[in-house]
């Protein structure tokens, strides 16, 4: 009985102590949030899907981040931005948007959402107002251009040679075969979609330049990174840098996640 009485008295004392906390102190405790971004949304590019991030996802999750690979349809720029905006809406903010290749245009537009704390461009386009992916990548010719094949509905597909030599030339033969078999064609309308409000003008940005890119010119990538004022990292890699150098991509994303809120 004495023990029960002691526990009961202790609980009463704790309740009394909590009651003495000032409203301001309570409010502070309720509004404090952990530093940095805890949610990362990954947006794939053309001729790919969310599985292109398969090597990066476990590296980010191992560091405690919540990761979502957005599946954009590649049917039109508006459709792809809308798919990304729906993904953002489902998450608690703040979030970090990461875009590869054409996905850079998508995050440039969708990144204006108030929940978005920062942008990471991975061998990607970063269009300004009125610019499109097609306009940017065609401004500096690359070998991949001759390996695109359109169908009657306006969707572009890469030839096996294009995948092996210009898209993923530093991956294993087995990985190249899988990419060739699973590639998702992109509609020309998506590539022609123009950005209206570039989120990188108001959000901190990071950029990974793929030094051996044969799909988007490395020089164009470096110029875009400079134009948007991004924290820039250059890695010797093919266009699919997240598959050839996943650890280096993950390192940049982790750095961005830790700094995006306070930068």
UniProtKB/TrEMBL annotation:
PANTHER family: AB HYDROLASE-1 DOMAIN-CONTAINING PROTEIN-RELATED, ESTERASE_LIPASE_THIOESTERASE DOMAIN-CONTAINING PROTEIN. It comes from the Bacteria. Keywords: Signal. Residues 40-251 form the AB hydrolase-1 domain. Pfam families: Abhydrolase_6. Residues 1-27 form the signal peptide. This is Pimeloyl-ACP methyl ester carboxylesterase. The lineage of its organism: Bacteria, Pseudomonadati, Acidobacteriota, Terriglobia, Terriglobales. InterPro entries: AB_hydrolase_1 (IPR000073), AB_hydrolase_fold (IPR029058), Sec-Metab_Biosynth_Hydrolase (IPR052897).
């Amino acid at each position: 009985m004495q023990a029960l009485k002691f526990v009961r008295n202790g609980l009463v004392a704790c309740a009394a102590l909590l009651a003495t906390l000032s409203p301001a102190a309570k409010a502070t405790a309720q509004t404090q949030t952990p530093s940095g971004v805890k949610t990362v949304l990954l947006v794939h590019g053309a001729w790919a899907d969310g599985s292109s991030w398969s090597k990066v996802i476990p590296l980010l999750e191992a560091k405690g981040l919540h990761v979502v690979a957005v599946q954009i349809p590649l049917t039109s720029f508006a459709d792809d931005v809308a798919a990304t905006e729906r993904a953002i809406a489902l998450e608690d903010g703040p979030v970090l948007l990461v875009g590869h290749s054409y996905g850079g245009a998508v995050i440039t537009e969708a990144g204006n959402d108030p929940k978005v704390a920062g942008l990471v461009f991975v061998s990607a386009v970063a269009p300004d107002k009125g610019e499109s992916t097609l306009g940017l990548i065609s401004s500096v010719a690359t070998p991949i251009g001759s390996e695109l094949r359109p169908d009657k509905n306006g969707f572009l597909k890469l030839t096996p040679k294009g995948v092996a030599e210009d898209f993923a030339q530093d991956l294993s033969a087995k990985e190249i075969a899988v990419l060739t078999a699973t590639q998702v064609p992109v509609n020309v309308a998506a590539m022609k979609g123009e950005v209206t409000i570039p989120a990188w003008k108001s959000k901190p940005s990071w950029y990974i330049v793929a030094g051996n890119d044969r799909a988007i010119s490395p020089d164009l990538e470096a110029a875009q990174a400079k134009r948007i004022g991004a924290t820039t990292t250059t890695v010797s890699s093919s266009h699919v840098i997240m598959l050839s150098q996943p650890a280096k991509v993950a390192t940049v994303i982790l750095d961005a996640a830790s700094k995006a809120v306070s930068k």
